[in-house]
Amino acid sequence: MSEHDDELDEEFPLGNGTVETEATVLCPYCGEINEIALDPGSGRQQEYVEDCQVCCRPWRLVVTYLPDGTADVSVEADDLR
Q1: Neighbours of 57 (CB within 10 A)
Q2: pTM for the full predicted model
Q3: For 9-54, what is each residue's pLDDT tens digit?
Q4: Cα angle, residue 66 at apex, residues 47 and 8 outer, rounded to 5°
Q5: Whether the Cβ atoms of residue 78 and residue 60 lie closer than 8 Å to each other
Q6: Which of 37, 72, 76, 78 has its CA 20 to 30 A from that of 54?
């Protein structure tokens, strides 16, 4: 087991072994559904910018992993770009 695996075990204690790695979100600009990949290895709380797969406008995503491995994902328009 690597040091990285140890860090993940601390972030997500063993349960049923399931951690969400994808989510479905609605673009705040065009309203289209987007399937996005999630990276549980980037930590319990994440914030980053991703572009809509349809209209290419940027959104700000906030991802919070809960202790059971589910991801709470919120998306908002990123009007700063």
Answers
A1: 15
A2: 0.74
A3: 565 555 556 899 999 999 999 999 999 999 999 999 999 999 999 9
A4: 80
A5: yes
A6: 72
